[in-house]
Amino acid sequence: MTTTTLAVLVPLLPFLGAAAGLLLGRTAPGLVRPLAVLPTLAALVAAALVAVRQGGGQAIEAHTELTPTGSVPIDLALDIDGFAALVAVLVAFVATCVQIYSTGYLRDDPRYPSYAALVSLFTSAMLLVVYSGDLIVLLVGWEVMGICSYFLVGHYWETPEARAASLKAFVVTKLGDVPFLIGLFALGTDAGSFSIPRVLDAVANGGIDHPTVIALLLLAGVAGKSAQFPLHTWLPDAMAGPTPVSALIHAATMVAAGVYFVARLLPLFEASRAAMVVLAVMAAVTMTGSGLAALAQDDIKRVLAYSTIGQLGYMTGALAVGDRGAAVFHLLSHGAFKALLFLAGGV
After folding, report:
1. CA torsion angle for 237, 223, 328, 279 (degrees, to 10)?
2. Which of 158, 40, 148 is nearest to 100 (CA)?
3. How many Å apart are CA 94 and CA 330, to the nearest integer?
4. How far is it between the farthest Cα atoms of the chain?
5. 318: buried, middle or exposed (CB in 10 Å: 19+, 13-18, 0-12)?
6. pLDDT 10s per residue in the chain (347 long)?
């Protein structure tokens, strides 16, 4: 099987698992657990094979035009460098652990079939963000994650805390997503393409006319998704959801997406001195504030939530000084230890 085909299967398998789980959840309850675990496990194996074949060498690229737009084209594109390949392995690994753990944690929950399908869809969306070579396709994965988080955080919707937390998570992240969307359109217009390699080429050749405005608009979306100051308030409240959801959101998916996006388009942010200063200040305030806020918590999951905000601050701090390697290394190590902390907290 070619590397490109394997790469396409990585986000596709959890998506198919989610669709099958939603369709068969009530009619064939015996299939729900295999449909939750096996597609995600298969995606993990495929992601590992892609990472081995990529091997830190030349980026794997493939694209096909999605639709003729009449202006800036939108492509279904893959762009997988060593960084993307590693992050995809982390996402698939944590998602597999969460699905296996959830089979026991939510054993008697009547809403388990829809929960498992949403976790699979969430995983598929994050893998789409990681592998996508086109900014509009990346945006689709970005928004699907936001919708899934709303339903997963509000899983216990009988309780007022869960209802309020899911609404807050949705609204606060959307506050960042509106400027993020405008920034993406402005970037595509300036660069003449939504393709990430072409955008980076345009940045390198000085083809972006308004780097500061675009970078600051994009940073608003990043602050919302990665829970950075001042859009960090939704994350501690998101603890109202089931513990495996907390492990998934905090370790490898949703909150990692913003850091991943900045790391992926780091040359664009480096083209604007003002954006790097804003990123550095945001990181410093987030690190300090979350550490102080954690001291006042008496619930283990809220302590871990503030820890997550602080650790993401370290990653954005590394990006603010232009060190992508350090940020990515910490993204991977944090994904491993934070997932373990949350799953242990659930016990």
Report:
1. -140
2. 40
3. 15
4. 58
5. buried
6. 787 888 888 888 899 888 888 888 777 777 788 888 888 999 999 999 888 887 777 777 777 776 776 777 777 878 888 888 889 999 999 999 888 988 888 888 778 888 888 999 999 999 999 988 888 888 989 889 888 888 888 888 888 888 888 888 888 888 888 999 999 888 888 888 888 888 888 888 877 788 888 899 998 888 887 878 887 887 887 777 788 888 888 777 788 888 888 998 888 888 888 888 999 998 999 999 988 988 988 888 888 888 888 899 999 999 999 888 899 999 999 988 888 888 888 77
Q: Backbone phi, then psi, for 162, in 5-degree steps? A: -65, -40
Cα separation of 114 and 148, whole Å?
11
- Give 154-214 as a 3 state SS string: CCCCCCHHHHHHHHHHHHHHHHHHHHHHHHHHHHHHHHCCCEHHHHHHHHHCCCCCCHHHH
Cα separation, 160 vs 154, whole angstroms: 9
Residues 6+ apart with CB under 8 A from 30: none
Q: What's the CA dihedral at 291, 297, 301, 303 to 10 degrees?
A: 20
In the beta sheet, which residues pair with residue 60?
80
Distance CA(218)–CA(264), nearest Å, equals 12
Tell me, rounded to whole angstroms, the distance of Cα 58 from its chain centroid: 24
Residue 342 carries which side chain, given as an amino acid letter? Answer: F
Strand partners, 76: 64
Which of 221, 252, 219 lies closest to 338 in space, CA to CA? 252
Closest CA to 40 of 89, 88, 1, 95: 95
Instruction: Please choose, from the candidates 54, 21, 229, 25, the residue with its C-alpha nearest in 3D space to the C-alpha of residue 124.
Output: 21
Give the three-class secondary structure for 64: strand
Q: Which helix (H) or strand (E) holds 74?
A: strand 74-80
Q: What is the DSSP letter of 55?
A: T
Please give the model's pTM, rounded to 2 decimal places: 0.89
Asked whether the beta carbons of 188 and 194 are under 8 A apart, the reply is: yes
Query: Hey, what are 327's tokens?
Result: 């940020």
